[in-house]
Fold:
Amino acid sequence: MSLEKKLQQGLRGLHVELHADVRAKLLQFLALLERWNRAYNLTAVRDIEEMLPRHLLDSLSVLPYLRGPRVLDVGTGAGLPGIPLALARPDCEFILIDRNAKKLRFVRQAIHELGVKNADTVHTAAEQFQPPLPFQTVIARALTAIPDMLNGCRHLCAADGAILAMKGVYPETEIAAVDAGFRVRDVVRLTVPGLEAARHLVILEPAGGNEQHK
Structure:
């Protein structure tokens, strides 16, 4: 089965519909990632067939939980989940930050080659980032323990926004350590086509945030 067919099958499994142009750019992104990975060591996953579920579909699995219009991808690494999400949600503005300049070089090149108009990068750590406006969604994929993530990102989340922590196995200990400044709104068990590993999305909101999301 071709990579394109596998992507279409995976998107159906996620109940995500994307235009053919977007699907083509997602596959182009994977090809760029595979090529750059040989020299830049962006990910431990070397095979493009394996990158499809582990990176692309995994990133897109959180689409239903994004709040816009401003989305921040913290510790984006190789542009994950930020670039796939930006391609899928052209109505939102994405900022992808990382402290690793080498990886951000790839991300900038990918954004340029793919023509992603709604994404930009900032070379910084979350703790030091001072944007002009907060974000409705702050997301991180397997970045750090949730309490540490909150310590670095709390100032970046809008009062009516959410912090999304993409995790593997259910992070019971991390959830128990969430401080009083945030509440766990939900923990969603994600099913990613072609990926057998456990995946969970922890959705956190400022404790004094907008009550409409309760």
